[in-house]
Amino acid sequence: MNVSSANVTVSDWEADSFSKALTKNVIVVVLGISINYINAGLIHTFRKHQIFYTNPRYILFIHLVVNDMTQVTLTIILFVISYTIYKLNVSICCTFILLALFTTENTPLNLACMACYIAICVPLRHMQICTVKRTLMLIGLIWTTSMLSVLPDLFITLATEPLDFFHSRVFCLRQTVFPNPLIIKKRDLTYTVFLVIVWLVIFYTYFRILFTAKTASKDAKKARNTILLHGFQLLLCMATYTTPLLKDALRQWFPKNYTDSLFATYIIVQILPRSISPIIYGVRDNTFRKYLKRYLLCKVSIS
């Protein structure tokens, strides 16, 4: 996943007037604050009620929320920096990019795991398989997979670039801090593997639920709808796999409005998917909605 879509929109920042640049930054910051505020409410609700942190389904969900909050915050910081500071020390930029890549790659993996949980545990009720301990191990596996995918970029760069490179200042993009051509080939291969595996999981879980016994038809119907929402969210998240190809296409299709089209792509690919999770669990889920409403009403009454 190319996190550079967060700030590549301004790699040709001179093309933007001051008013346009200010508008873009205000839009990004307002959207980020709004999403993080809602997600903070979800985290508070989760933390206050034991019913959630003893349920593997909600543990996976809150991990996704915390991960997405981190990802949104990091990409917005990179976006604003690219308009203000413009260039960063390579070591600092590398830290930002690595953390953003970890959290970006975690999202589709977490969604795939949640789909598996819904398929195995919701209508079929195999609760002996879906335990809190195994859920925590699964979250550890998600992070391990993301790190194994991303850290080779750092190791290759450390092995091929001179020490002075890490003390220089660059425009903070993935390709500027990890410039080796081998990294690009590795990235494309990794994205292809991730794309195939995650979508196979989504299709498997959907059809598994589709053919569930009629005795669980009500739960199966709700689970199917949730899987479809996860599929839509996943489709948006995994559009980042195609970012390099998409950027080339946008440059050819909209040469005069390239930065504007990339900005729109950033909103759709990076920001919009992170606003869907609260809808799936904060609004559609009866249990979470009940406690979240109680928390919000209490807060309003106190105010």
From TrEMBL:
<protein>
    <submittedName>
        <fullName>Olfactory receptor 51Q1-like</fullName>
    </submittedName>
</protein>
<keyword id="KW-0812">Transmembrane</keyword>
<feature type="domain" description="G-protein coupled receptors family 1 profile">
    <location>
        <begin position="38"/>
        <end position="281"/>
    </location>
</feature>
<dbReference type="GO" id="GO:0005549">
    <property type="term" value="F:odorant binding"/>
</dbReference>
<feature type="transmembrane region" description="Helical">
    <location>
        <begin position="136"/>
        <end position="159"/>
    </location>
</feature>
<feature type="transmembrane region" description="Helical">
    <location>
        <begin position="26"/>
        <end position="46"/>
    </location>
</feature>
<keyword id="KW-0472">Membrane</keyword>
<dbReference type="GO" id="GO:0004984">
    <property type="term" value="F:olfactory receptor activity"/>
</dbReference>
<dbReference type="GO" id="GO:0016020">
    <property type="term" value="C:membrane"/>
</dbReference>
<dbReference type="InterPro" id="IPR017452">
    <property type="entry name" value="GPCR_Rhodpsn_7TM"/>
</dbReference>
<dbReference type="Pfam" id="PF00001">
    <property type="entry name" value="7tm_1"/>
</dbReference>
<keyword id="KW-1133">Transmembrane helix</keyword>
<feature type="transmembrane region" description="Helical">
    <location>
        <begin position="189"/>
        <end position="207"/>
    </location>
</feature>
<feature type="transmembrane region" description="Helical">
    <location>
        <begin position="106"/>
        <end position="124"/>
    </location>
</feature>
<feature type="transmembrane region" description="Helical">
    <location>
        <begin position="263"/>
        <end position="283"/>
    </location>
</feature>
<dbReference type="InterPro" id="IPR000276">
    <property type="entry name" value="GPCR_Rhodpsn"/>
</dbReference>
<feature type="transmembrane region" description="Helical">
    <location>
        <begin position="227"/>
        <end position="243"/>
    </location>
</feature>
<feature type="transmembrane region" description="Helical">
    <location>
        <begin position="58"/>
        <end position="86"/>
    </location>
</feature>
<dbReference type="InterPro" id="IPR052921">
    <property type="entry name" value="GPCR1_Superfamily_Member"/>
</dbReference>
<dbReference type="GO" id="GO:0004930">
    <property type="term" value="F:G protein-coupled receptor activity"/>
</dbReference>
